[in-house]
């Protein structure tokens, strides 16, 4: 549940900072500090989403299913 909350937070950040980068580029402020910070935050949010997806995959790989428990009991 916590990973889902964090994922939603960073997904909202991707949208927010992506919009801000687009808006500043349309205004011709590609060399401004605002644009650079928005772009940095945009890429950081994308990176965090990738990390969360990998954590979810690793988390589901480590779960022991019912079939594994039954095999252990039989042995």
Give an overview in words.
- The protein is built from 3 helices and no strands.
- With 75 residues, the protein is mostly helical.
- The model has no long low-confidence stretch (mean pLDDT 89).
Which keywords apply here?
0% strand; rod-shaped; 3 helices; 75 residues; mainly alpha
Look at the helices and sheets and give the structural class. Answer: mainly alpha
Order of helices and strands: HHH
Assembly classification: single chain
How can the largest sheet be summarized?
A: none
Overall strand count: 0
What general form does the structure show?
rod-shaped
Strand content: under 5%
Average residue-wise pLDDT = 89
SS field, number of helical segments: 3
Helix content: over 70%
Can you tell me the residue ranges where pLDDT is under 50 for at least 5 consecutive residues? none
Distance from N terminus to C terminus (CA atoms, Å) equals: 34 Å
Rg from alpha-carbon coordinates: 20 Å
